[in-house]
Amino acid sequence: xxxxxxxxxxxxxxxxxxxxRDRRVIKAKPRILRENPYPGSDxxxxxxxxxxxxxxxxxxxxxxxxxxxxxxxxxxPVYITHIxxxxxxxxRYGRI
Length: 96
Description:
The chain has four helices and five strands; from the N terminus they run βαααββββα. It is α+β, with helices and mostly antiparallel strands. The chain has a single domain, classed as YaeB-like fold, CATH 3.30.2310.20.
């Protein structure tokens, strides 16, 4: 089962504002979401506990950045809603 990755414009704008090294690191990691976006023991993916109706997940990247994403299992897109520094993600969503 292969999922399609989609990226929100704000997340893409943040990504493009980073230096080339950080962009390269961030672009490489979310590719694992195409094969299996669900949390498990194989990667650093976890479900976020929020009060929103849509389930959100997070993926830590290089202990520096966090990708927040949603999954639509019917249509198979993984929608990356935010890319942010890990400290900002911890303030917004708490430490898991």
